[in-house]
Amino acid sequence: MEATMTEHPHADDYARGAYVFVGLALLTLVEFGVAILFKSVPVLMVIAAAKVGLVLYFYMHITKLSIQDEAQDQHTYAYRSNTNRLGLWLFLLSDSFVFIALLVTRFNLLGLTRPPLNQLLGLAISSVLLVSSFFANRGEVAASVGDRKTFLSSFMVTIVLGTAFLLGVVALEWPTAIREGLTPSSGVAGAVFFMMTGMHALHVLTGVIFLLIIHRNGRRGLYTPQKHYAVESAAVYWHFVDVVWIFFYPALYLIGTVL
Asked: Is 184 part of a structural domain of the chain?
């Protein structure tokens, strides 16, 4: 069995993740303020695109897709990891069409109106998911440098926060919406809201299960700095879930006037 990971601080990579998180947090606050004060849809879309760009580049390592060595032995772990990485991104690309279709449906049917949702609750659950992405990135960085303790604790925090987000949507937001008369059968707004949040919640649940498996394997010492692609893939999938919500959040809670 591979040697277990030992603690190995990597301050620069940890700091980069923190800087990106602060940037995402500030953009989210600006986004909320713009929605409340100016209601500018173009500005909200620019902010969402900027947030997605940060996540893709710094947290989801999209630049790694270009790292290929044609002379590399196809039986090596590095070659197989690059191949798996491409496969994962193709899957995420195909999955994104589902969410794009939901966004198109939302704007086609509701236009510049939105469901009567609690904006503060929306901001709270969005913040929880944003923080969880920070810890997912921190855990992945820790695994890549052999800091096993930080890897395990960060992934556990991600799991807890992901579960909290899931409960916030299913156990708080849905009952609140239903009490306000917004149900899947109450009309277009209800159908759109429950379909978008339901599909996203399903992916969050899948991500939590994925992270639990990786955490369990990490406790067994199955990952090393040289062989930890499974950790990276779990983190990238989690960030993808965050990217989807970056667009869903303004589409459902911030853009347009209340119906």
From this structure: yes
